[in-house]
Amino acid sequence: MSVYRGKRQKTYRYKFRYRGKWHRGNTDFEDLQRAKLYEAKQKLELRERRAGFAPPGPAPSFTAWAGVYFAWVTTRRRPAVRRPEKIDELLRVVLRFWGTRPADPAKIPAGEECPYHDLTIQDPIDSPQWILEFEEWMDRRGIAGGTRNHYNTTMRQLYAVALLAEYRHLSGVTMNPFEHRPREPRVIRKVALTPALVIAWLDAMSYHARLAVAIAALAPKLRLRNVLDLEWATHLDRELTTITVWAHKSVGRTAAPLVIPVSAQLRSILQDARARHRRARHVVTYRGAPVRSIRHGIRAAAKAAQIPYGRRLLGGVTFHTLRHTAATILARLNVSPWLQRDVLGHQDLATTEGYTHLLVEEQRAPLEQLSAALPIASIVTRSDTRASRSNPGAPRSGSSRNAPELSGPDRATGQAHGRPFTRKSQPSQGVTK
Questions:
Q1: Which of 15, 97, 153, 429 is most buried (CB neighbours < 10 A)?
Q2: Which helix (H) or strand (E) is 265 found in, with range?
Q3: What sign has the CA pseudo-torsion 129, 134, 140, 145?
Q4: Long-range contacts formed by 315-318: CB under 8 A, 24+ apart
C-alpha cells in the first residue's frame, strides 16, 4: 500500500508513482483514514495541474504585493501619477496594519499604533472582519475623512492590479473587497491667517523655511512641492520677472505650465537668496543641498509664534493655509474673482463657468497688491540664518524690519493651541474663517 507507517513513527507517510516519477512525503496524520484522504488529495492536485486547472498557490502577503503594485505604478506611462513618492508614503502607512513588521525597529514610527498583522491579500476576502478592524484602526488614529479616502483608494487600487489578467495567476484573488467601500465626507477647512500672524510665523523660522513660505505667500499658485523643486535655471528667467513650472497638479488636464509673474517684493527676496547661494542649483537650499521637507521647521515656528498647527487642531494651520490666506486677502482687496482664480491657479469658477480667460500679465497688478499687504521682504532677507525660539515677537538687534506686535485677537489665536479639531469645530478667534 502507498500509505504506511514505519517503525518508531507516529504519523503515516505516503509514497506513490505518477507518470514515471515517485512522490513521497509525510501526511502528519496518525489516523489511517485521514492519511489516505491526504494522499488522495495529493494525487488529485497532480492530475489537475497536469490538466491545466490546478488551484492557485498561497496568496502573496500584503508586503510582497505592495512592491508589485508600486512597480506597476512607476513603470507604466500613466500621466495621472505625478508623485510616486506620495504613493510610496500611502503604502507605508497602510502596511503598518496589513503588512509585516520590519526587522529594523528604527523603521517603526514611535508613538503610533502599528499592529503589523502580516496578512495575505486573500485574508480580507475570506474574513471581511479585517476591513472593519482596519476602519477601527483609522478611527483610533483620528484620521480625517480625506486622508481615510486616500488609504482606502490605495487598497482598492492594490487589488485592481491584482485582478489584471497579467497578475491574476500571481495573486490568485477573484474580487476586490475595497471596490464599493463608502467614501468619507471631506471636512472643508476654511482657515486663513491675518498678515500679522503670517509675519509672526515667518519671524520664528530658519532662513530656508522663511524663503519657502515667502515664495508660497507671494506666489500662491505654487504648492509646497513646486516651491521646494524650484531651480534657478529651469524655472526662473534671468531678470526674475516670471516663474514657470511644468510639473504641477493640473498639468494632466490643462497641458500647460504654471506661469507666475514675480512681484517687486518677491523679486527682492529672490535676489537676496541668489546672492546668498550663488552656486546653488535650487532656490530653497540648506547647507548647499536641496530641501525635501520643511514640516518640522514650520511646525516649531508655529508653536513659537503661538499659532495652532496641524489639521487635527482647532483652527490649525498648515503650509496649504498660505493659499487660503492669499485668497482671503485678495477678496478683501476687491480683486476680480476671475483674477483671483488665475492668481491661485484654479481651474473652475462657478460664476464664470470657465468662459473668461485673462492673460498671465494681468495677474501682475493683484500680485503687487498682495505683496504690498504682506511686507515680509526685510524679515526673509535679514542676515541671520538660524531661528530664535526665545521671544519671536520681540525685535532683534541689528534688524531693519518693522514687524507689528501681536495683541488682541491676533494674540488670542495662540490660546487655542492644543485643542482637538473636530468636524463640527469652528476656527479659533485669531484665525479668520
A1: 97
A2: helix 264-276
A3: negative
A4: 315/191, 315/413, 315/416, 315/421, 315/427, 315/428, 315/430, 315/431, 316/191, 316/421, 317/191, 317/193, 317/201, 317/431
Q: What is the pLDDT of residues 225-258, one digit of tens each?
A: 889 999 999 999 999 999 998 877 766 566 788 8
pTM for this one? Answer: 0.55
pLDDT value of residue 351? 33
Confidence of residue 305 (pLDDT cuts 50, 70, 90): very high
Report how far residue 394's alpha carbon sits from residue 391's, in angstroms, rounded to the nearest whole number. Answer: 6
- Kindly write down the DSSP assignment for every residue of 52-96, as one continuous string: T-PPP-PPPBHHHHHHHHHHHHHHS--TT---HHHHHHHHHHHHH
Give 216 or 418, the one with higher predicted confidence. Answer: 216
Rg of the Cα atoms in the chain:
30
pLDDT at 425 over 60: no
CB 220 within 8 A of CB 331: no
